[in-house]
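User: I'm writing a tutorial on reading structure tokens. Could you give me a worked example: one chain, its sequence, then its tokens, then a sentence or two explaining what the tokens reveal?
Assistant: Sure. Here is the example chain.
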Amino acid sequence: MSTQPSLKNIPLSSVNTTPHWSIHPFLDDIPSPALHQSFTEMGILHPPIVQQEQDGTFNLICGRKRLYALKHYFKQTSCPCLIIQPALDPYTFLLYILTDQQLNGPLSPIEIALFLKYCLDKMDEKEVTNFFLPRLGYKKQTSLIQQLVNLLALGETIQRQIHHGLIIDKIAFELLTLPPEDRFCLSSLFELLQPGTGKQKRILTLSRDIANRSQKTISALFQEQDFKQIVEHQEMNPPQKTHTLLELLQKELYPRSSDAEHVFKDKVRRLNLPDNCELTHSLNFEKDEVYLTVTFPDLESCENAWTQKNGL
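And here are its predicted structure tokens:
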């Protein structure tokens, strides 16, 4: 029997659409408006992939939404499909899935996690590392495979946030190291405030360090009145809440540094520096040095100022 794929028109009634190989955990059957319009105007340009069984039926590998649209919206009883044979090596079979799914754009970390889980069912971990991780945009690091697959142990709410880009994989890896109630607390906060990745990282790091030092949970920390007032404030917008929250976390973790910051800002204010001058200090006041930055509109202005200063 040939293992080469073939493109044939087959009856939809002969296709088993059980999503056994689906890497889309939150995907419903309803096609997007764009897919509906494309089918209306151009027909099917991207055929589903099916695998032929010995009894002549077919198992759907990729294209559940495409089949649903053809069957329920366009009332078709048959469809051109790319048919792959049962006797395929794991590399080829899984590469069909990955190539098909990547045609719609990069996979989300949760989709990658599901795909890697399927890979580990059929292949050795080292083989997956060398063959598929580069195709998924990752370095050839075996430890990454388990980190990504472990994302499937997170609750559905957090998985959805990761899938929709509210939490990137690196932040998600750190959430895995926290107790479930702390994961949920932080993920809920991230969804509410939608801070950027850098600020998510700072919130997670600061709150975790405070919780460890005070021997309390992160969820208990954010139940304290000072934090609740910021999160529940009716007039501040999300960026303002994020900024205020980070300031409070910084003060909680480094109280002396926070006090020094207030003194420093007060002294700078009294200096009444020109608008083009900025005075800064070392990180957390670890050194006594301060840094004066003077901004000029162009190089010529800088040269003139330097000449006048030196009496040239």
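What the tokens reveal: Strands lie at 6-11, 15-16, 49-52, 58-62, 78-84, 277-281, 290-294. The chain has 15 helices and seven strands.
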